[in-house]
């Protein structure tokens, strides 16, 4: 028997679908402005076509960032359509970041299809990513709040790049000793890599919806807390999640020696001194996962995720928001991190 869907998840799914319906036509129109070959690669990345351009409906993203932008505008008291340019821009930037991330990480697949760099080549994928970024800036610059909107996006991108750089450098650092990665460094990385664009999405939507600066700032901080919580939950699922749901092999993050929060937290325990030897492609992922859990790594990661979720909720509770949109925004935020909490 299929498990019933919780009210929050069901409501969040409805919100995502509503926002995708609102933003989708504008997103497709924007992509259609690109060079035809670049537009094809972008359409492939969104799941709209196969290589060569034949239309298809392939797995795509949930549209979380575009929904946050629409809800940000609505929470500011505006019609959701006011946030559509922000929604399109952040969706384009998110796609740009994924194209480049897959190249940097050497990930050959994305959403169970060959990644763009595998399907078209590395150079073309870089070009497509650059084009998506330029298009996002152009769309925001054309809004009445153009200069301020572009500044918000550029600040988020600077933090995203900083977080991505830290994440790449973490792989070169030891598990133990004075040069080890600390949980505090992890939090800063996750806020930049994942939280910056989430915060930017809701803040941009609110800004285009006429919200005052302090409200937009509160939205940005809430999204950043959400990003850290989302990354923490993703780390937990990367070790203990169901592969049928996550699309990742069991213990994949442990075999790849990723500096995830559960492992970093576990290494703080003297009982985990054997852990580094268990990690890596020739290690023992099941034994490593059991050890991380036994010394409290999983518990620490989930507790940290709950704390950041609570901080995001508090920021939204204290901001002056339109009631209905505020409820939908809170439900969406909490559904994103409710996968393992």
Topology readout:
Layout: H1 7-31, H2 36-46, H3 64-75, H4 84-105, E1 109-110, E2 113-114, H5 116-120, H6 122-141, H7 146-170, H8 183-208, H9 213-240, H10 243-246, H11 252-255, H12 261-266, H13 275-278, H14 285-294, H15 297-318, H16 323-337
Antiparallel strand pairs: 1-2
Can you describe this structure?
The protein is an all-alpha fold and 341 residues long. It is 70% helix and 1% strand. It contains 16 helices and two strands. The chain has helices at residues 7-31, 36-46, 64-75, 84-105, 116-120, 122-141, 146-170, 183-208, 213-240, 243-246, 252-255, 261-266, 275-278, 285-294, 297-318, 323-337, and strands at 109-110, 113-114. Strands 1-2 form a two-stranded antiparallel sheet. The radius of gyration is 20 Å and the shape is globular. The two termini are 23 Å apart. The relative contact order is 0.12.
How would you summarize this macromolecular structure in one to three sentences?
This protein is an all-alpha fold and 341 residues long.
């Amino acid at each position: 028997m299929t498990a019933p869907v919780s009210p929050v998840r069901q409501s969040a799914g409805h919100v995502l679908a509503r926002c995708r319906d609102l933003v989708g036509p504008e997103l497709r129109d924007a992509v259609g402005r690109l060079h035809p070959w670049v537009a094809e690669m972008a359409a492939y990345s969104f799941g709209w076509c196969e290589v060569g351009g034949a239309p298809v409906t392939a797995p795509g993203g949930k549209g979380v960032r575009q929904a946050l932008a629409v809800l940000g505008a609505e929470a500011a008291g505006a019609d959701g359509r006011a946030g559509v340019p922000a929604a399109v821009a952040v969706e384009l930037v998110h796609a740009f970041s994924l194209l480049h991330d897959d190249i940097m990480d050497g990930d050959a697949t994305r959403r169970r299809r060959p990644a763009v760099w595998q399907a078209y080549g590395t150079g073309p994928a870089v070009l497509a990513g650059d084009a998506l970024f330029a298009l996002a800036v152009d769309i925001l610059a054309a809004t009445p709040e153009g200069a301020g909107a572009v500044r918000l996006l550029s600040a988020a991108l600077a933090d995203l790049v900083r977080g991505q750089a830290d994440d790449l450098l973490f792989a070169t650092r030891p598990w133990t000793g004075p040069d080890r990665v600390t949980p505090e460094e992890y939090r800063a990385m996750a806020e930049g890599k994942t939280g910056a664009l989430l915060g930017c999405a809701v803040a941009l939507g609110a800004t285009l919806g006429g919200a005052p600066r302090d409200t937009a700032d509160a939205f940005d901080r809430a999204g950043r807390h959400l990003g850290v919580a989302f990354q923490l939950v993703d780390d937990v699922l990367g070790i203990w999640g169901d592969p049928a749901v996550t699309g990742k092999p069991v213990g994949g993050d442990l075999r790849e020696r990723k500096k995830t929060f559960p492992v970093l937290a576990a290494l703080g325990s003297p009982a985990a001194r054997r852990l580094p030897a268990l990690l890596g492609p020739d290690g023992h992922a099941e034994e490593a996962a059991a050890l991380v859990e036994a010394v409290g790594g999983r518990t620490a990661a989930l507790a940290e995720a709950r704390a950041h979720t609570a901080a995001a909720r508090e920021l939204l509770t204290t901001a002056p928001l339109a009631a209905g949109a505020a409820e939908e925004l809170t439900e969406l935020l909490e559904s994103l991190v409710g996968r393992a909490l």
